[in-house]
């Protein structure tokens, strides 16, 4: 799930950006409407979290142009303007959900998770593969029905592998998932997390593709 956050208020934007990081969402934050539209048209985002009052181009115009171009990203509108006319216009223009300022970031994250589930077509908020079950909201992981205690990055790694079980992920891609834009990543950190997953779950859970990377192993 890749998110484009469009919010010109630096404090609120930073707060939401932090919350998205905590929620383990890959995201990009821009503060200008025109820049947001250009990005959304040229890159693939699963979701736009879109403020309405923006410099450059207002949020409703961004949304309208986005939909006119046939861009299908989900859009969650945020606005200080708690007016039903904006809400209705936003929804008419193809927004998927709407939240009014002020709001708790936890509420925003809950809305994003709900949209994520809708997008994924998940009936339940859970990934299941063979002996493994992984909950997307509570981050619980079970092996053969028994809860297993994973560290945050071990969970993120397992989640990524389970989301795309047939994909081989390079070490660099997994570092991106686990550490985002953080600079100092130990060169063997992904291998360390893989080692821990194998120890806490079972040795075949992650398959090493020599010279390439990793994918989900035999989990039946
Ligand atoms: Ca604003």
What does this structure look like?
The chain is α/β, with parallel strands linked by helices and 220 residues long. Helix content is 41%, strand content 22%. The chain has 8 helices and 12 strands. The strands form 3 sheets. Strands 2-1-3-4-5 form a 5-stranded parallel beta sheet, sandwiched between helices. A 4-stranded antiparallel beta sheet has the order 6-7-8-9, covered by helices on one side. Helix 3 links the parallel strand 3 and strand 4. Helix 1 crosses helix 5, helix 2 runs parallel beside helix 3 and helix 6 packs across helix 8. It is elongated, with a radius of gyration of 19 Å. The model has no long low-confidence stretch (mean pLDDT 88).
Write the layout of secondary structure elements.
Layout: E1 2-6, H1 10-22, E2 26-30, H2 33-42, E3 47-51, H3 59-68, E4 74-79, H4 84-92, E5 97-100, H5 105-120, E6 126-129, E7 132-135, E8 141-143, E9 146-148, H6 152-163, E10 169-170, H7 171-179, H8 189-200, E11 206-209, E12 213-216
Parallel strand pairs: 1-2, 1-3, 3-4, 4-5
Antiparallel strand pairs: 6-7, 7-8, 8-9, 10-12, 11-12
Bound molecules: calcium ion (CA).
Quick description:
By secondary structure, the protein is of the alpha/beta class. The protein has helices at residues 10-22, 33-42, 59-68, 84-92, 105-120, 152-163, 171-179, 189-200; strands at 2-6, 26-30, 47-51, 74-79, 97-100, 126-129, 132-135, 141-143, 146-148, 169-170, 206-209, 213-216. Strand 1 (2-6), helix 1 (10-22) and strand 2 (26-30) form a beta-alpha-beta unit.
